């Protein structure tokens, strides 16, 4: 049985960010092969890491915002607070 695509509104944004990171990473490889300075290489690697980390964070928060809501459904205010706090703390990933 084939599963339907699992798409969210943020997926195109995430793909764009990852493609940019991919381009940066290819550039870093070229920099290393060309013998560029370690400082320049480290700066570019840092940019790649940040882009990937932001893509991951966006994906996880989007998943929690949409998929968790589908599973949990409507809750009483006192029970809802725990879910909202859980979603809020993921901003610090």
Task: Chart the SSEs and their pairings.
Layout: H1 11-34, H2 38-72, H3 77-89
Helix pairs in contact: 1-2
GO molecular function: DNA binding; metal ion binding
GO biological process, one term: negative regulation of DNA-templated transcription
Organism: Aquibium carbonis
How does this structure look, described?
- The protein has 93 residues and is an all-alpha fold.
- The protein has one domain (11-92): Up-down Bundle (Methane Monooxygenase Hydroxylase, Chain G, domain 1), CATH 1.20.58.1000.
- Helix content is 77%, strand content 0%.
- α1 packs antiparallel against α2 (38-72).
- Belongs to the FrmR/RcnR family.
Name of the level-1 CATH class: Mainly Alpha
User: Mean of the pLDDT scores?
Assistant: 85
SSE-based structural type: mainly alpha
CATH topology: Methane Monooxygenase Hydroxylase, Chain G, domain 1
Order of helices and strands: HHH
Number of E strands = 0
pLDDT < 50 stretches? none
CATH architectural arrangement: Up-down Bundle
End-to-end Cα distance, whole Å, is 35 Å
Kindly estimate the percentage of residues that lie in beta strands according to DSSP: under 5%
- At the fourth CATH level, what is the homologous superfamily? Metal-sensitive repressor, helix protomer
GO molecular function: DNA binding; metal ion binding
Protein name: Metal resistance protein
Organism: Aquibium carbonis
InterPro entries: Metal_Tscrpt_repr (IPR003735), Metal_Tscrpt_repr_sf (IPR038390)
